[in-house]
Write a structure and sequence with these properties.
mainly alpha
């Protein structure tokens, strides 16, 4: 009977160890959100003007999307998760940190998006003559 108790005690200890390891590793999954700014210079965007911040935000958003696509593509192959982590994860975290700091500076400076430029209506060429009334009625 002593062997049965020892067996159950070992099984219980193993189960507790597995649960503890699972909890410890699950904490790492959400860590990248809080660690991202640690990989970027917090004072980088302090002196940027709104126009500079706007272009920087667009560039960082594009780069983040590119890296995410590359990571997703790498994960489809054999051993892709490892390749994705080794090749792209650090840069992805760095770019996300920079984007977060740029966004903070954007809000702090109370910047607004530049409205898209309205394309002017096509003006007739200088030598072109307006259509005659008879040409308009034919249509």
């Amino acid at each position: 009977m002593s062997a049965l108790i020892q067996y159950r005690l070992r099984a219980c200890c193993m189960a507790v160890a597995l649960v503890a390891a699972g909890l410890a590793l699950s904490g790492c999954a959400g860590m990248s959100e809080t660690v991202a700014p640690a990989f970027a210079d917090p004072a980088k965007y302090e002196l940027y003007e709104c126009k500079q911040l706007e272009s920087e935000r667009k560039t960082l958003a594009t780069r983040t999307a590119d890296l995410q696509r590359l990571m997703d593509k790498a994960q489809t192959g054999t051993g892709g998760a490892v390749v994705s982590e080794l090749a792209y994860r650090n840069e992805y975290i760095s770019v996300r940190g920079q984007a977060q700091l740029a966004e903070d500076a954007w809000r702090r400076n109370k910047c607004r998006e530049t409205p898209p430029e309205a394309t002017p209506a096509a003006a007739p060429a200088p030598g072109a003559k307006p259509a005659s009334k008879s040409a308009r009625s034919v249509r």
